[in-house]
């Protein structure tokens, strides 16, 4: 896709969609309503448009607080998953629609919270990923609806706290509109994928997403090392303060189901850990610890400081942990100049292939796969060994078919 109109031009010509064509449905929060929804969806035809709203930035959990579904002949349904906690009702809904194609925009964001309540698809169509394969420069749902269907959505509730109860009526309208035209958008993108000869590629990508829908999320090693501002902490004991306060905050956040940043911001942890000998006085001088939520847990913060102060040097965390993969690309020139030149050649080859097939480079081949391959190429170096290495990393068959020949040459001396 080239010479795309600007967002302003698209918005100026688009029709503002302010309400669903059939009106905003009531939220469904009783077993009787859910059974009626299951029956209606079973009686409908074609794929099912699905979306989920979370409370990111407000709650600790990433659970779904609203589920939107729409199918031709069945209409739109808004389900409150909180009303069905500790019941198998939503798993029954998931089973009823699992063999139908799901249409989701940015499926990787919603599939984990849907799987958590027993809803996983066997087949899906990701409208965001389809747009990326078609090389659209802007792939947000609102932008795609404007560009392909000529309608514009208001996004004023996209960052709302969806754990709020009762949900305001205008929020429900916003939520219903998110699935109002997903079926039509899917059909338009599917036609374009066929015309571009990319439908088989998309099918592989969608199958991989569906296959991994229920997989557990891998937890990072030492997640506290991602605390914003930690670069200011220069000592191992300082890192121990970060780790201790991060863990205390995480336990409080999990117990209260509040986003960690709403209890204590990262910057406050990093600032305290940067002090030479942090104590109660230091804590009182840092604005983040004076917030109402943080003050409630003053005894916990002080206990954490006391605990770290008593740790022996051997108990302190190392300044750095060994990387399980290649170093950051900017460090390659000093660590391994040969690998750095190899990475440059590989990127040039992939850039040419991406341009030839009108694909974003990151969709042609995952950047992490590229770095791992360039840092440690297989030996002996053949097209077969490169193909096997990429397959083990998780590259799709279509990606390997397009890239292996050029990569094999670029990885050579």
Head-to-tail CA distance between termini: 36 Å
The H/E string reads: HEEHEEEHEHEHHEHHHHHHHHHHHHHHH
- Can you give the helix content as a percent range? 40-55%
Report the CATH topology name of the largest domain. Nucleotidyltransferase, domain 5
Largest sheet: 6 strands, mixed
CATH architecture descriptor text of the largest domain: 2-Layer Sandwich
Structure, explained:
The chain is globular. It has 3 domains: 205 residues, Nucleotidyltransferase, domain 5; 93 residues, DNA polymerase, domain 1 (Orthogonal Bundle), CATH 1.10.150; 83 residues, DNA polymerase, domain 1 (Orthogonal Bundle), CATH 1.10.150.80. Helix 5 runs parallel beside helix 8. It contains 21 helices and 8 strands. 52% of the residues lie in helices and 8% in strands. It has a 6-stranded mixed β-sheet with strand order 2-5-4-3-6-7, sandwiched between helices. With 413 residues, it is an alpha/beta fold.
Write a concise keyword list for the protein shown above:
413 residues, alpha/beta, Nucleotidyltransferase, domain 5, DNA polymerase, domain 1, 3 domains, two-stranded parallel ribbon, 21 helices
Chain-wise SSE layout:
Layout: H1 7-13, E1 15-17, E2 27-28, H2 31-43, E3 45-53, E4 66-72, E5 75-79, H3 89-97, E6 102-104, H4 107-116, E7 124-126, H5 127-133, H6 141-149, E8 151-153, H7 169-180, H8 182-195, H9 199-211, H10 236-256, H11 260-263, H12 266-274, H13 280-284, H14 292-295, H15 298-309, H16 332-335, H17 337-357, H18 361-364, H19 367-375, H20 383-393, H21 397-411
Parallel strand pairs: 1-8, 2-5, 3-6, 6-7
Antiparallel strand pairs: 3-4, 4-5
